[in-house]
Amino acid sequence: MTPTKLLIGQILAVFAIMIAGVWAATQWCAAMLGNQPELGSPWFRLFDIPVYEPWALFFWWFRFEAYAPEVFDKAGSLAAASGFLGCAAAVSASLWRARQSRHVTTYGSARWARFGEIDKAGLFGGAGVFIGQYRGRYLRHDGPEHIMAFAPTRSGKGVGLVVPTLLGWTGSAVIHDIKGENWKLTAGWRAKLGHALLFDPTDPASARYNPLLEVRRGTHEVRDAQNIADILVDPVVTTDRRAYHIELESRPGSAMAALSWTYAEDEMVTLRQAKVEADATAPMAAGLAVEALSFGYAISGDRPAWRPLRAFDDGRQTYIEFPPSLAVGEAPPLFVIGDDGEAALVNYRVAGRFYAVDRLFARAELRLGTKKQAIVRIDRLPVSRRRGGRGA
């Protein structure tokens, strides 16, 4: 109730007390005078008793005081008493209002719930999440609302709320148990209710989960595999102070390896064979004439799984052909070696298992790895050493 409504109610109560007192004095005076006709007609009758207007006493007092002074003195005392009683009620109400004004809500209105409020909220039930205790009775919440317990470390959240809930909760539950304490204390009991699984990637004895088995076949498989690779190698580090430049280490596998888990070995063999047949005709499909190609390139150096099969050019562009294994592993970057011996990255396109470089070069290197780097060199042979020259 607002302060304005309280004040209006207080004023009305004081006036009601005063009017009731004067009315009672009027009725008492009329009774003492025997309800004489000279008093005038009554306002109405109640149970055959004449009832006069509350203010009739003052008219009678003025006209008949000389005939019955004692009666009017006592009636006046009763009327005055009602005035004092009204003043006392006004003072009491003012004190009560002043006391209520101390419960200000300027800084919030939260407070501890009372018994009736707790009972109305249904927290004395026998099921749900343990949230506390009140006068020896447990408080449990079994509604659809979310619950948050906020307290300092080692203040009893686990032993007071979580552990009792896990021992009394009969439904399914997923617990983020960082310290492992809840599992040790409640797993034995919960195993009697149903399956109790511990998933800890750092514990070989715990349950296992392979996210690669969740890759959806079809149009979603590449995106799913890329999501898994992004989770494993995430180059984004966000801070509010500095920007960090991270150099990531390439590893065999990543997205293509994730896709290989999706298919059985026999399916992979079929897919690889189809890939080989498609790539074998790639140069012809691209509109390259065999008689216009020059295969005068020598490949030397290490022998990794991705070592190129051959290199050739058409007088404008250089093509490097790789084995089918390139499709399931990391692709090596291409560096062109300049006249000064310095290596520089060049732009190239990947078409199937071919690199297409938009220029000719005399020497280039394919490099992959960091600690133990594999290097394959590609050298353009002099015309005298080429196999039959262009078109051979």
Short account of what is shown:
With 392 residues, this protein is of the alpha+beta class. It has helices spanning 3-32, 56-64, 69-100, 115-120, 157-168, 181-193, 221-232, 254-260, 265-280, 282-285; strands at 44-46, 49-51, 129-134, 137-141, 297-301, 310-313, 318-321, 334-337, 343-345, 348-351, 354-357, 363-368, 374-380.
Describe the secondary structure blueprint for this structure.
Blueprint: H1 3-32, E1 44-46, E2 49-51, H2 56-64, H3 69-100, H4 115-120, E3 129-134, E4 137-141, H5 157-168, H6 181-193, H7 221-232, H8 254-260, H9 265-280, H10 282-285, E5 297-301, E6 310-313, E7 318-321, E8 334-337, E9 343-345, E10 348-351, E11 354-357, E12 363-368, E13 374-380
Antiparallel strand pairs: 1-2, 3-4, 5-13, 6-7, 7-11, 8-9, 8-12, 10-11, 12-13
Helix pairs in contact: 1-3, 5-6, 7-8
Could you characterize the architecture of this molecule?
The chain is of the alpha+beta class. The chain has helices at residues 3-32, 56-64, 69-100, 115-120, 157-168, 181-193, 221-232, 254-260, 265-280, 282-285, and strands at residues 44-46, 49-51, 129-134, 137-141, 297-301, 310-313, 318-321, 334-337, 343-345, 348-351, 354-357, 363-368, 374-380. 36% of the residues lie in helices and 15% in strands. A 5-stranded antiparallel beta sheet has the order 5-13-12-8-9, with no helix packed on it. Strands 6-7-11-10 form a 4-stranded antiparallel beta sheet, with no helix packed on it. Strands 1-2 form a two-stranded antiparallel ribbon. Residues 388-392 have low confidence and may be disordered.
